[in-house]
Every structure is written in C-alpha cells, then in structure tokens.
Model the fold of this input.
Amino acid sequence: MIFSIFEQFEIFKIISFEIFGIDMSFTNSSLFLLLSLLFFVWLFIANIKNGYITPTRWQSIIEMAYETIYGAAKDNIGKKAGKYLPFVFSLLMFIVILNTFGVVPYTFAPTAHLALAFGLSISIFIAVTLLGIINHGFNYFSMFMPAGCPMVLAPMIVVIEIISHAVKGLSLGIRLAANITAGHILLAILSGFAWNMLIAGGFIAVLSVFPMFIVAFITVLEIAVAFIQAYVFSLLVAIYIGEAEELH
Done:
C-alpha cells in the first residue's frame, strides 16, 4: 500500500458497537480524547496533592498558564472573570494537550478534524449566545443594530451583523483545525523526504542531514503552534463571553 501523508488523519474503529442503531464505536480519536482527559486530570491532581512551596517544573508551567489566561479573562470579561476562569483555563489546557499529542510520532491529533473542532466551537458559540440572551433578554439582539445607523440601511446592516456574528462559531473551529492540519502535513512531507534521502545511500544519505534539521525545526514550531492556537482559541472564547456579559 502506498504511504499517504493523510493517513495520520484517518479515523478508524478500535471497538465497534451500536446503541439503539446509533454507531457509538470507540475510535482512535476517542482514545486520544480519553488519554488527553486523563493526563489533564492527573496533571492537576499531582500538583494539588504535592503543593510544594517551591514549585516544580510542572507546577511552574501550570501557574504560568493560569496567570496568562487569567490576565486575558480579566481584560476581556471584566469583574466577572473569576466566574468563567475555570472553564476558559480548562479549555486552554485541554486543547494544548490535544494539539501536542499530534506532534508525537504514531499518535493522533483530534483537533486536526473539523468534526471535533467545529463541535467544540459551535457548542461554545451557542452557549455564549444563550448566555447573552439570559443576561439581557431581547435587548441582546440590539447588538445587531449599531446606534445611530440610518433606518434605510437597517435591514442590510442587521443581516451583515448577524452573518458576522454567526461566523464567530465557524472561525474558531476552522482556525484551530486548519493550523494543526497544515503543520502536520508539512511535517509528514519533510520527514518522508528526509527518510527517502537517507535510505538512498551514498552522498544523498549524507545530504539528508539538512532536511532532518528542518524537520527538527518544524517540530519545535509545531509545539509552539499547539500552544499558540490553544491560547488564541481560549482568548476568543473569553472575548465572546465578555460581549455576552457586557453587551458591547
């Protein structure tokens, strides 16, 4: 079978079963979602259990991530930032773990699939919209009609504002999935190129050192992208929550 760079994104069933005619099979995507959740829980339990005065490396990383996302939440949500901080912070750490799993060879990155990325972003978008309606009632829809807008332009402005508002739910998932997918494809292409040069032997095998260095650089870049995209996703969620709270 010819190797394909898209094999790393293939979803296959590990345990196949149905419930009331609905396919509820346990897939490789489900496996890495479960592993990410277990690692996430273990990471926090280990840090809470130890509670060192002088923080360990893991504890320092958690504290840095917490301070970063706390600042973002406070700047965008305001006084009620503490209410939503556990959710935004958990979202950040969970996506970071999911993204970085894909950098490890022979693993799987669930966030590279639009099904998961869209499911996550659209569910958050719906929840934030409902939050705005609960907080402000029908006055929430006034955000679709900017103050001082001429009535003759009102229908067009309202349609544009509704579309731009709805696109928020799509842009979160597209941005996350596209960046993770693009990076993994580039890494697979360069890795395959370096391997083909290495097994060719002779002078070409010596030259394979150069694409190997590039692969190492891309790997470091992929890890950085995993963190950056998780932060951007969480930051945008904090911004949307702030809009639902303050109606601006």
Notes: The helical segments are 28-50, 57-77, 81-101, 114-136, 154-200, 202-207, 209-246. The chain has a mean pLDDT of 79. The CA atoms of residues 132 and 244 lie 4 Å apart.
